[in-house]
Prior knowledge:
By secondary structure, this protein is α/β, with parallel strands linked by helices. It has one domain (29-166): Cytidine Deaminase, domain 2, CATH 3.40.140.10. The chain is 31% helix and 22% strand. The protein contains six helices and six strands; from the N terminus they run αβαββαβαββαα. It has helices spanning 2-9, 34-47, 88-101, 123-135, 164-168, 180-183, and strands at residues 29-32, 53-62, 65-74, 106-113, 140-144, 156-159. Strands 1-3-2-4-5-6 form a six-stranded mixed beta sheet. It starts with a helix and ends in a 7-residue tail after the last helix. Mean pLDDT is 78; it is low at 4-16 and 176-183.
Amino acid sequence: MERLQRIFSGAGGMGHPPPDSPLLDSSEQVYISSLALLKMLKHGRAGVPMEVMGLMLGEFVDEYTVRVVDVFAMPQSGTGVSVEAVDHVFQTNMLDMLKQTGRPEMVVGWYHSHPGFGCWLSGVDINTQQSFEALNQRAVAVVVDPIQSVKGKVVIDAFRLINPQTMMLGQEPRQTTSNLGHLNKPSIRR
């Protein structure tokens, strides 16, 4: 009977670790500075009803942390539903300017807006993210909704693609033991 209780309570049975063993949290967190967030929202609002996009500058602090300290807008042609891929000439020129000014940050990903229709990646967005991940597998895509971000609540989410080959092998690219990073979204209290 005691064995059955252990199995059903998850205390070391059925592949669960004993309750006193530590669980490692390997989820990643993306920290976005106030400056970067305000610039994303301002850029997104200015582009309504069209989508806008830009590059995120920052650092990969460690294996589990991405810090975004600044962003800059990118010229692109957008529709209400998607933005075209990154203008590589503009991106190269901006990165050269950053080097000349001595800024230590690197491109950690890109952001774009979905004005009025929430945070998710469209097919075009997935293609853009694939091009970023080809340069750096830890690159992050951030989507912000400037229309739904009202009264101190910011509608924002971060994404990274999952390699389908990893999923077919039954492996997760990262073991996630909590959703702490997903619950702590920025908000402005009034």
